[in-house]
Each structure stands twice: as C-alpha cells, then as structure tokens.
Automatic annotation (TrEMBL):
Membrane-spanning intervals of the chain: 7-36, 56-74, 95-120, 140-160, 172-193, 213-232, 239-258, 278-295, 316-342, 400-422
Signal peptide: none
GO MF term set: transmembrane transporter activity
Organism: Bordetella genomosp. 7
Name of this protein: TRAP transporter large permease protein
Length: 427
C-alpha cells in the first residue's frame, strides 16, 4: 500500500480518535492528502464531493424517510404494535416478541434502524419496564431488532450500497427478505429464552376478534412493502419512484383512511426529513470523496493482490472481510463504511466470483451488528436514551443477541442460496 493511502487513513483515524464528526473527518483527511501530496488540484475535491451525490437513486433516501415520517404521523406505528400484540397473545415474554415483530414490520416502512428504534422503542420500552422486564435487556432487544430490520426492504443501507456498486436495488430488496426474517427469528428465540429464564410476563390473552380488528387497522401499513417491492420487481417503477409512490400512499391513507394526519404533522415530517436526509447525504458526499482517493491510490488492487496471495477460497475471503467490517462497524456508522469499503472490495468480489448482491446483504448485517456495538452503536444508543439507562447496562443481554445475529450471518455466508434464491427465481 502506498504512503499516500497510509497518510490518508492515518489522518482519518486521528479525526475519529478525537471524536470529530465522521463527515468532517473524511473531508479533512482528503484535503490534507491533496495538500501534502499535490496529486490533484483542490478544486477536484469539491467536484468529487458533488459527483458522489449525483445519482437519481439517492433521491429515494429522503423520499423513503418522508414516507416513514408521514406513516408514523398517521398512527401506523401504534396499529402495527397492536397487530403484533394480537398475534403473540399471552405467551411468556410476549412483549419482547412483540418488540421484535413490530421493529421488523416498521422496518418495512422506514428503511432506517434509528427511526425504527425511536418509533417502536417510544411505545414499547415504557410498557416493558412496567411489566417487569430488565431495562438493559429491553433496550438491547429493541436496538438489535431495529438494526436487523434495515435488511428488510426498503433499506436505506441497501439503496446506498446499490448506488455505489451499480447493483440492482430491486434485487437487493428481494435478497434482504429471507435474511431479515431469519434475523428476526433469531432475536425472537433469544427473547423467549431470556423471558422464560427470568419469568417475564406475556401480554393479553389471544383473541380472534382482537386479531381481526387489529389486522383491519394495520392492513394499510402492511400493503406498503407489497407496493414497494412488488412495483419494483414488476418493473412498474424504480426504487426512487417507489419512494414517491409511498409518500402519495401515506398521504392518502393518513388524510382519507385514518383521518389522523394533519397539515402540522406533515410540516413536522418535512422538517425531520430535511434534517435526517442532510446528515445522510453529507456523509455520502464526504465518503465518496474519500473512496475516490483510495481508488486513485490503487488500494483496491493492493487489497485484491494481498488476498489472492493469501487464499483462493471464496468463503475464506468473505470471512476475512466480515472480520474487517465488524471492526469498522464498532466505531463508524454504516453509510460511511459502505461508501468507503464497497469500491475497494468490488475488484476482490469480481476476482473470486462473489455475487455483489450476496456480499451486499452480508455487509448490511455486519453494519446492523455494528449499530449495536459500543462505543458508537447508534441504534443501541437511541434505545438507551429512550429507556433512560447507560449503555453499559445492556452489555450482558446484548452479547446473546449479537451472537444470534452473527450465527445468522455465518449461515448466510456458507449458504448463499438463502440470500440469492428470491432474486434469481422471482420474476
């Protein structure tokens, strides 16, 4: 690896250690590299920053965020939680199972782990505390389930990965369905086991009448993933157009079906969307600039040559990349990791004939695990803030949940057909 690449990553590491915002650290390290090595005019930094944002597909990010905000404002979150509670009934640890199911369902609306944790956690964490659940367990569970739900379409993480690597977002959405379900099942198993161990309470007894009523109330929300994934797969619209359709759908449902959406709620949703989208796009632009310099320094080629000399096993390469991604995920958020890593590893994937859709799902699961791993752990941090506890209180129960998610990731690594079956067979 060249001295220029080492200098670039060294400066960036220093900015991370001094707790500088990731986006600023990426830009500062790039500018320092250009100033010291003078490989290109400074003006190119601005051009590459803008070029990183010049993608029609990226427009889907603010649109999906707005759609989720509108649906949350229309009361779909409460209806999803009610439906999950009606399905689960009074089994031991029922509230914990409801939390996982609700996160998975809301993840199919929001595409964002943090938004999922805030929406579901605000409703269920106080209820779980009143029912005697350990707060550390509850926050770890909601944080893990919220992060795992980002594998389920429409995932912002998958949209970013697809845009950066020129991989079909529609195929990535389909590929995320089975892994997302497996992650949810793994967390439910841990939740039931822990609930039985500590004798935590269930919910209200199962009732067919309540289930029918809850299903009728939540049905409009359940139609959203069908609209998005079905429309993309049938070629009716692109991912960006699907996001626009979801906004129109949310407005129609909120104003005319539930009649719970107000102009004030719409305005608040627009403001929240602007803030969230700006933060994400700021990171994407900065990460694109950083990746451009890494490619110019031939880091992808160096990595590819190193791995070729080390092993000729596709599975071994995936496991090595998994370890690297898990380490990166402990101190960086998902989007900058994806934009920095994806261009670097694409030549490696091509050399070993690794399907970029398969790797994209594995990368997303790595980032979901990282979103709950201290010291950063943005999803876990959001859950702890709602629960009013310190992150250290979650470490013991969190260990079991991270092991469960890691086990699913390893299963998907060794059995890629679990990821690739739907993209290959659903027309």
């Amino acid at each position: 690896m060249s001295m220029g690449a080492l200098f670039l990553m060294g400066v960036f590491t220093v900015t991370v250690l001094i707790d500088m915002p990731i986006a600023f650290g990426l830009v500062l390290s790039c500018l320092a590299y250009l100033a010291v090595y003078d490989t290109a005019p400074m003006m190119l930094a601005a051009q590459q920053y803008v070029a990183g944002l010049d993608s029609f597909t990226l427009l889907a990010i603010p649109l999906f965020i707005l759609a989720a905000q509108l649906m949350n404002g229309a009361g779909l979150t409460q209806r999803i939680v009610r439906l999950c509670a009606a399905i689960v009934g009074d089994i031991r640890g029922g509230l914990a199972v409801v939390a996982v199911l609700a996160c998975m369902m809301f993840g199919a609306l929001s595409g964002s782990g943090v938004a999922d944790v805030i929406a579901i956690g605000s409703l269920l964490l106080p209820a779980m505390a009143r029912s005697g659940y350990d707060k550390g367990f509850s926050c770890a569970l909601v944080g893990s389930a919220g992060a795992a739900s980002t594998i389920i379409p429409p995932s912002i993480v998958l949209i970013v990965y697809g845009t950066i690597t020129d991989t079909s977002v529609g195929k990535l959405f389909l590929a995320g369905i089975i892994p997302g379900i497996l992650l949810g099942i793994s967390l439910i198993v841990v939740a039931i086991w822990q609930a039985r161990k500590y004798n935590w309470a269930g919910g209200d007894p199962f009732s067919w009448a309540e289930l029918r009523s809850a299903l009728a109330g939540a049905l409009p929300a359940l139609m959203v993933p069908v609209l998005i994934v079905g429309g993309i797969r049938m070629g009716v619209f692109t991912a960006t157009e699907a996001a626009s359709s979801a906004i129109v759908y949310a407005l129609l449902v909120g104003f005319f079906w539930y009649r719970s959406l107000t102009l004030r709620t719409v305005w608040e949703s627009l403001k929240s969307t602007g803030e969230g989208s700006a933060a994400i796009l700021l990171l994407i632009g900065a990460s694109g600039l950083f990746a451009w310099i890494l490619v110019a320094e031939q880091v992808p080629q160096a990595l590819s040559q190193m791995l070729v000399h080390f092993t000729d096993s596709k599975t071994a390469v995936l496991l090595i990349l998994t370890v690297v991604l898990l380490l990166l995920g402990t101190f960086m958020e998902a989007i900058p990791v994806i934009i920095i890593v994806a261009p670097v590893v694409m030549p490696v994937l091509a050399h070993y004939n690794i399907d970029p859709v398969h790797f994209g799902i594995l990368l997303s699961i790595n980032m979901a695990i990282g979103a709950n791993t201290p010291p950063v752990g943005v999803d876990l941090m959001a859950a702890c803030k709602i629960g009013g506890i310190n992150m250290m209180q979650t470490l013991r129960p969190l260990t079991w949940m991270m092991l469960a998610m890691t086990a699913v990731m390893l299963l998907l690594t060794f059995v890629p057909e679990l990821v690739l079956y739907l993209p290959r067979h659903v027309q």
